[in-house]
């Protein structure tokens, strides 16, 4: 069975807890992040584009202040650099506001490099973006455990340039490990082929659940020693009525969500489910002391619908 954390490659002493908690689209990000910590999660996943870095940092600082037997090293925080600088004038002020037209009458927010006409995946902008992420987490958070380039979209040169900026942040001790998200095998190969890349990605965070298994990419990452973090591991709750997982859940006396998350863990990936509900938060981390039998793993393996079955926007192979 999988251990409760994975060592990050080439990062002595840095362990990523196998069960984390996503702070994206929470009704109240601070309440959910704090609730998750109180429930026992020790790994929080936020991002610049989620607009939940301040709430995540505040939740960690206040939780640690209320629990003096714990310290910063007991909590693992991941955040991510978006492809455009969201602090520029004309950017949406909140994640929720992206669902509404901007007041300037332009019809759409410019949250992608294509719409803005420039990316922050440059070396100085990546440093500035990382620095903003860290500052937004507040005075109690002096380093980030894991920082990712959120997407491959701005292109090859931009990916390398941004990476070089993040390497500087790592060298200065402001971040303990670096990774990527939504990257394909080719993106990873191209990055490490650059001689200036001296600290290769330790993590690739991708959509992964029974209906979208991205097996080739997962296998490639494992061969390279890259830890796979499964986002939307519950397929955002959209497939929990699938008769195959319902039947397996009944067999084990577990909830469907627990079976889906356990299948992810037994596939040797890290999971970061999101919930605003404390009962579900507890349920989603009550995953130890029982195992899915090989035959049930195989049944769930058979549900893979390929990248077309994803619930999010990212097909890693769709980007140059
Ligand atoms: N890197 C990327 O591009 C990327 C993209 C998407 C997500 N992510 C990360 O991955 C995290 C998780 O992904 P996600 O939020 O997209 O989806 P998810 O965790 O697969 O699903 C969350 C949904 O499932 C519901 N849910 C949670 N526990 C449940 C349970 N036990 N039973 C039934 N329903 C349950 C939640 O509702 P309630 O809140 O009401 O419980 C919510 O609607 C995000 O928070 C974010 O940190 C990363």
Automatic annotation (TrEMBL):
GO molecular function (one): oxidoreductase activity, acting on the CH-OH group of donors, NAD or NADP as acceptor
UniProt protein name: NADP-dependent oxidoreductase domain-containing protein
Gene3D superfamilies: NADP-dependent oxidoreductase domain
Family per similarity comment: Belongs to the aldo/keto reductase family.
Record-annotated site: Lowers pKa of active site Tyr: 80
InterPro entries assigned: AKR, Aldo/ket_reductase_CS, NAD(P)_OxRdtase_dom_sf, NADP_OxRdtase_dom
Organism: Dactylellina haptotyla (strain CBS 200.50)
Binding site for substrate: 150
Pfam family, one: Aldo_ket_red
Domain of life: Eukaryota
Alphabetic keyword roster: NADP, Oxidoreductase
CDD domains: AKR_AKR1-5-like (cd19071)
Keyword Manganese belongs to the record: no
Origin organism lineage: Eukaryota, Fungi, Dikarya, Ascomycota, Pezizomycotina
Residues in NADP-dependent oxidoreductase domain copies: 24-303
Active-site residues, Swiss-Prot/TrEMBL: 50
N-terminal signal peptide: none
């Amino acid at each position: 069975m999988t251990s409760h954390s994975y060592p990050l490659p080439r990062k002595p002493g840095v362990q990523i807890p196998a069960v984390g908690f996503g702070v994206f689209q929470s009704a109240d990000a601070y309440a959910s992040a704090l609730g998750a910590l109180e429930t026992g999660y020790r790994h929080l996943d936020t991002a610049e584009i989620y607009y939940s870095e301040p709430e995540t940092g505040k939740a960690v600082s206040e939780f640690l202040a209320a629990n003096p037997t714990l310290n910063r090293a007991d909590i693992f925080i991941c955040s991510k650099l978006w492809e455009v600088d969201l602090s520029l004038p004309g950017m949406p002020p909140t994640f929720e506001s992206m669902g509404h037209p901007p007041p300037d009458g332009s019809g759409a927010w410019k949250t992608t490099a294509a719409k803005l006409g420039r990316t922050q995946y440059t070396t100085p902008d990546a440093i500035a973006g990382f620095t903003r992420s860290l500052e937004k987490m507040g005075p109690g958070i002096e380093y980030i455990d894991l920082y990712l380039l959120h997407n491959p979209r701005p292109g090859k040169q931009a990916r390398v340039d941004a990476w070089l900026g993040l390497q500087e942040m790592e060298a200065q001790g402001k971040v303990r490990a670096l990774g990527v998200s939504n990257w394909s095998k080719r993106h990873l190969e191209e990055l490490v082929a650059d001689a200036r890349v001296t600290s290769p990605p330790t993590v690739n965070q991708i959509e992964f659940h029974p209906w979208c298994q991205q097996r080739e990419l997962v296998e490639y990452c494992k061969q390279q020693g890259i830890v796979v973090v499964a986002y939307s591991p519950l397929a955002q709750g959209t497939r929990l009525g699938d008769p195959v997982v319902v039947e397996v859940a009944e067999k084990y006396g577990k909830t469907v969500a627990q079976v889906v998350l356990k299948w992810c863990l037994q596939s040797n990936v890290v999971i970061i489910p999101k919930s605003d509900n404390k009962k579900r938060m507890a349920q989603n981390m009550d995953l130890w002391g029982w195992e899915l039998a090989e035959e049930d793993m195989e049944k769930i393996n058979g549900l893979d619908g390929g990248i077309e079955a994803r619930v999010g926007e990212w097909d890693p192979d769709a980007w140059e």
